[in-house]
TrEMBL record:
<feature type="binding site">
    <location>
        <position position="84"/>
    </location>
    <ligand>
        <name>carbamoyl phosphate</name>
    </ligand>
</feature>
<dbReference type="InterPro" id="IPR024904">
    <property type="entry name" value="OTCase_ArgI"/>
</dbReference>
<dbReference type="GO" id="GO:0042450">
    <property type="term" value="P:L-arginine biosynthetic process via ornithine"/>
</dbReference>
<dbReference type="GO" id="GO:0005737">
    <property type="term" value="C:cytoplasm"/>
</dbReference>
<dbReference type="GO" id="GO:0004585">
    <property type="term" value="F:ornithine carbamoyltransferase activity"/>
</dbReference>
<feature type="binding site">
    <location>
        <begin position="235"/>
        <end position="236"/>
    </location>
    <ligand>
        <name>L-ornithine</name>
    </ligand>
</feature>
<dbReference type="Pfam" id="PF00185">
    <property type="entry name" value="OTCace"/>
</dbReference>
<dbReference type="InterPro" id="IPR002292">
    <property type="entry name" value="Orn/put_carbamltrans"/>
</dbReference>
<feature type="domain" description="Aspartate/ornithine carbamoyltransferase carbamoyl-P binding">
    <location>
        <begin position="8"/>
        <end position="148"/>
    </location>
</feature>
<keyword id="KW-0808">Transferase</keyword>
<feature type="binding site">
    <location>
        <position position="311"/>
    </location>
    <ligand>
        <name>carbamoyl phosphate</name>
    </ligand>
</feature>
<dbReference type="InterPro" id="IPR006130">
    <property type="entry name" value="Asp/Orn_carbamoylTrfase"/>
</dbReference>
<feature type="binding site">
    <location>
        <position position="167"/>
    </location>
    <ligand>
        <name>L-ornithine</name>
    </ligand>
</feature>
<dbReference type="InterPro" id="IPR006132">
    <property type="entry name" value="Asp/Orn_carbamoyltranf_P-bd"/>
</dbReference>
<feature type="binding site">
    <location>
        <begin position="271"/>
        <end position="272"/>
    </location>
    <ligand>
        <name>carbamoyl phosphate</name>
    </ligand>
</feature>
<dbReference type="InterPro" id="IPR036901">
    <property type="entry name" value="Asp/Orn_carbamoylTrfase_sf"/>
</dbReference>
<protein>
    <recommendedName>
        <fullName>Ornithine carbamoyltransferase</fullName>
        <ecNumber>2.1.3.3</ecNumber>
    </recommendedName>
</protein>
Length: 327
């Protein structure tokens, strides 16, 4: 079933129904098959897309740029020093200017209220490429990867292990509650998610049959799960707390013991970048910072590069569905 999402923004998955999320996943599968077959319908032909980046990016920038190009659009990168956003010009005014010139706007930055203001005033679809609170385009890629491995999303046993308060934990919990997963956040009590957000997710879960569990028990939290997911222990801007995070999360590092405690067919996911070996400046400076062992990261269970590729196909689906000519 197709859904009319034309003109819609994507700021958080709170705003999308189970059916709409599944539609975007299905559309992602179709567009991925098309690309692999060399079929490019140019659903965004003659469209111009603004890509605003306050934070550096590899996957989000690359995915939006390639997705635009594949579908016939022109992507325009606007870095934090390229425009006046919030500096010499209000966000409201910038939104109204860009909305007159572009057919869609991606924003990746810090405050979630910035992307909300852009969406309120731009008059064109605005897509959240990451804020401190939410990362919805990443979740769509994660869920496409899960579906490719298990053929479904509903009732999947999914454990997020690590910092339970960051944008990935928040977004995965909301997404899982929307599609009916058995979802757990496994984190030390000091890093449990906001209680109000947990209650909000549990309300969504009542409609879909999802279950939401927050626990600090690693063994019980990962027992028999089909997906183990983690993220870095300190997000951008949190470098000063890395030593404390290492001490707090040492027992939550994803290792083969954790993998062996899960389902035999468990997959390991990570939004990347990851500290899994010694070949980064950060790992050299903080040897204990690794949130996953290299053994797990390079194992048959790891689907992180399928997941990274799926950023492209799911971002393409979001843009085609909300700003394209065909859907």
């Amino acid at each position: 079933m197709a859904f009319n999402l034309r003109g819609r923004s994507l700021l958080t998955l709170k705003d999308y129904t189970k059916e709409e999320i599944n539609f975007l996943i299905d559309l992602s599968e179709t567009l991925k098959k098309n690309k692999n077959a060399g079929i490019f319908p140019k659903n965004l032909e003659n469209k111009n897309i603004a890509l605003i980046f306050e934070k550096p990016s590899t996957r989000t920038r690359a995915a939006f740029t390639v997705a635009c190009t594949d579908e016939g659009a022109h992507p325009e990168y606007l870095g934090k020093n390229d425009i006046q956003l919030g500096g010499k010009e209000t966000i409201k005014d910038t939104a109204r200017v860009l909305g007159r010139m572009f057919d869609g706007i991606e924003f990746r930055g810090f405050k979630h209220e910035t992307v909300e203001k852009l969406a309120k005033w731009a008059g064109v679809p605005v897509w959240n490429g990451l804020t401190d609170q939410y990362h919805p385009t990443q979740i769509l890629a994660d869920f496409l990867t899960v579906k490719e491995n298990f053929g479904k999303l509903k009732d999947i046993k999914f454990a997020y292990v690590g910092d339970g308060r960051n944008n990935m934990a928040n977004s995965l919990m909301l997404g899982a509650s929307k599609v009916g997963m058995d979802f757990k956040i496994v984190a030390p009590k000091k890093l449990h998610p906001d209680k109000n957000l947990v209650e909000e997710a549990k309300e969504f879960a009542k409609e879909t049959g999802a279950t939401i569990t927050i626990t600090d028990d690693v063994d019980n939290g990962t027992k028999g799960v089909q997906v183990i997911y983690t993220d870095v222990w300190a997000s951008m801007g949190e470098e000063d707390v890395i030593p404390q995070r290492i001490e707090l999360l040492e027992d939550y590092r994803v290792n083969m013991e954790m993998i062996n405690n899960a389902d035999d067919e468990v997959i390991f996911l990570h939004c990347l970048p990851s500290y899994h070996d010694d070949d980064t400046d950060m790992a050299s400076k903080y040897p204990g910072i690794k949130e996953v062992t290299d053994e797990v990261f390079e194992s048959k269970h790891s689907k992180v590069f399928d997941q990274a590729e799926n950023r492209l196909h799911t971002i393409k689906a979001v843009m085609v569905a909300t700003a394209g000519k065909q859907f």
